[in-house]
Amino acid sequence: MDRIQIVLIVVSVLFILFVLRLTKKNKLREGYSLIWFFLGFIILFFSVFRGLIDPLAAFVGIKVAPFIIIPFLIFVTFLLGMHFSIIISKLSEENKKLIQEVALLKNRIEKFEIGSNSKE
Amino acid sequence: MRVLIIIPAFNEEGNIKSVIKSIREASLDFDIIVINDCSTDDTETVAKSLNVDVISLPLNLGIGGAVQTGFQYAYNNNYDIAIQIDGDGQHNPKYIKELIGPLSKGDADVVNGSRFIDKKGFQSKFFRRLGIRFFQLLINILVRCNITDSTSGFRAYNAKAIELLKDRYPIDFPEPEAIIILKKRKFRIIEVPVEMENRTAGISSISTFKSIYYMVKVTISIIVEFLRSNNG
Fold this sequence. Notes:
The complex is a heterodimer.
Chain A lengths: L2 H22 L5 H19 L4 H8 L8 H51 L1
Helix pairs in contact in A: 1-2
Chain B lengths: L2 E7 L6 H10 L5 E6 L6 H7 L3 E4 L6 H14 L4 E4 L11 H9 L5 E5 L11 H18 L11 E4 H7 L8 H11 L4 E5 L17 H17 L5
Parallel strand pairs in B: 1-2, 1-4, 2-3, 5-7
Antiparallel strand pairs in B: 4-6, 5-6
Helix pairs in contact in B: 3-6, 5-7, 5-8, 7-8
């Protein structure tokens, strides 16, 4: 086993533990942690079974095996970007509904207050 | 027939007074609600000083979110008709009666005020008109409906349309897209001629700088809205 392999295994295990810790402490929602666990385990998998990189690279059509990291990283970055866009869209829609609800309720409360003041 | 006039307003302290006054001068005895879209000026105080009901959004939502809040208010309070009129004074309130006419007769579900039918009043700049022409063509191709002034924010809606739009209304640049939302669900939309003025105070929400973004965004929204399923 090469030194780089050991380093990568240690780093990916630490990364997975870090994600686990964040999730346990409720700093990262379970649903959103999946994508990070997935990433951690992929890196761990290929660090352990290093020999699998060559056939994979050959299959995709990349001559120098380590360069497979480049399309992989681009793919992961795109995936993450999309993931966040989806979450942000959902959040802003929910946020809009809350803002509207608060404004409507505030308006109703003001009217109730005016109503009860005029009775006194 | 209970009618609500919805006035979305963002930093319109200089215009809102004359808008409300001219609505009242047109002897329209309708309820008015100003949706204050988190203005940083005195829009709210000015409106309240004229004894007008104000809903103040705690954060800025943009014109679509503000108008939608008005629809929700109209729905919650069982109004039969909602009129949308801009808070910047570019819509002349004397045409509100014309907007309501076809709704009270049951001839339409939505009435759109168009400045291009009689070609009177402020006709907008050349490029703006070109853009509106393009939307007219696009909407006509997609939903077979001739809307000469799809960017007009001077409209009247019946209860059925209010019920739909309270849950589904685009957040920014909503007017052309709303035509598709309504037309896909077989709502009857007709246009009546109105006059619009150039803005009296403040600045328009669409600057030249933004107009290309506006065209691209609205075109994409129109097409996506057309492709979207009615329940989705």
